[in-house]
Amino acid sequence: MYKKIIVPVDVGALDKGEKILAKAAALLDAGGEVVLLNVLEDMPGYLAIDLPVDLMENALGENKAKLVQLKEKLGLNAKVEIRSGAAAREILAAAEEHGADLVIVASHRPDISNYFIGATADRVVRHAKCSVLVDR
Question: How confident is the model at residue 117, as a pLDDT?
């Protein structure tokens, strides 16, 4: 059904990541590609100054290792990509850069804060140029 699927995963919720990655595998065309994506949020400068220099580098390595382990667990041949920045912006950028025809995002049940701030999934749905599947 789909040739290129972006699957953003929060390494703090690997159970949700496993669920949406399995959905991506089921929806993928033969010869298609899954991009397993993790976005590290940027630290504000006033916080980053007090943190060890290699903290972000270590986090990048740990997150990549977790994603590799996840794709191997499911036996899926997926490209692993780690980005830093605002999650919604980086997911949308990855979808555009890779020419994705589907983004599958996990979402939590919305609470009152989502009506004022907006969840990552909400932003991706509003601004994506391709189809978006939101899994709750």
Answer: 44
